[in-house]
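Late entry, written up from scratch paper. The run itself happened at the end of the previous shift, but nothing got recorded in the book at the time, so transcribing now.
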Amino acid sequence: MKYGMLFTAVLLTGCSSVNSETDADSVVHSSYEAIDFIVEHKASEVALKCRPRSKEVASKTDWVKECNRRAFDYLTEQESNSVEFVREVTEKPFGMAADFAARFLMPNPENFEEVIIAQSFEYQLNEI
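Output as recorded:
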């Protein structure tokens, strides 16, 4: 029970900056073999979400590595297209909370449908 509450608190902390309203300018949902990767563009924010696609995938931590790789690739591509993020883009855009979520899910992968990692990045366009 303690771990469940701790997991929920960490996950909500990672997700707290994600605006859940449906006013997104555009939503991109990409399914890969192991993960679902979702990008929501808003006026000055990009919201990234990722989740494992099966309990087999959720039983290992590799799905978080794939989520981070997809997110990093996407964000660096945006930077090359004149988008400047307010904070630095690292190779682990979903942060430490995502690693914790993966480790927490490993012993009980049946709950994979309930787990989604999320992070948002404020940005501005560079005028060239």
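The first strand starts at residue 26 and ends at 31.
(Scratch paper discarded after transcription.)
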